[in-house]
Amino acid sequence: MRTAHPHRMNRIADALELLTAQHDEVDALIAELATSPSPAVRNQTINQLVDKLTVHLALEQELFYPAVSSALSAEVREELRAEHAEIKRILADMLWLESEDARFARKLTALQSLIAWHTTWQERELFESTAETMASDELADLGARLNAWIDGTAGDIAIAA
Description:
Number of strands: 0
CATH architecture: Up-down Bundle
Number of helices: 5
Structural class: mainly alpha
Radius of gyration: 16 Å
Oligomer: single chain
Low-confidence stretches: 1-9
């Protein structure tokens, strides 16, 4: 019997829908992390969050941004790279802290704000312009490439900035 891949979504074909679903999963994990009174649950949740974000950020950087590069100026590409690096840095810091530590809570607040800004901009600006410029079959093809990348690479990446 084959086990399910831990990062496999329910095979969302459209690239923008897949990335938006990943944003929703990350938001849910952050909310759980922020509200759980249990240190054990928070420790488990931070590990899940690191796994999800590591895959998501690499997916954007390696496949999505290159595919939509015509919609991204050099300045925007650099800003996105810097945001990804900052997210990874915060995650790495959080892994070294106890979830009861006040510094952990401050890092979580910073992460939550940065991710909210990042995903809101992507969904309102980048995804909308991508939907206007790419045909539905192109978005489906990109979605298939994203899914194939997740299936083949997800377990082999780390959070190194």
